[in-house]
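Quick start: what a row looks like.
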Amino acid sequence: QVQLVESGGGLVQPGGSLRLSCAASGFTFRYYPMNWYRQAPGQEREWVAGVTRDGGVKKYADSVQGRFSISRDNRKNVVYLQMNTLKPEDTAVYYCKPDGIDDWGRGTQVTVSS
């Protein structure tokens, strides 16, 4: 059974930083590209960042390029999202998801507010 457990969210002031983690199990983690998505209130879920199986290639949505960084640890089955220079518009529930597997975790809430 696929399990995705996101953590690390919270309340942060504009300009601050957070590091999200996603612990994955129930599938062979190192075989799958991993992604982060987010969903703000009243909006559709959107893709934020993705990383290839070996961590060698990373891609980002234009809205987070230069501020967010995705990484993974295939020994620990964890994918990370380092978020810097946070803005109020980054407020959302953040989810991780592997390519090709239609399972979602509960997400972790990120709120950027003064």
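That is the whole record. Strands lie at 3-7, 10-12, 18-25, 34-39, 46-51, 58-60, 68-73, 78-83, 92-98, 108-112. The chain has a mean pLDDT of 97.
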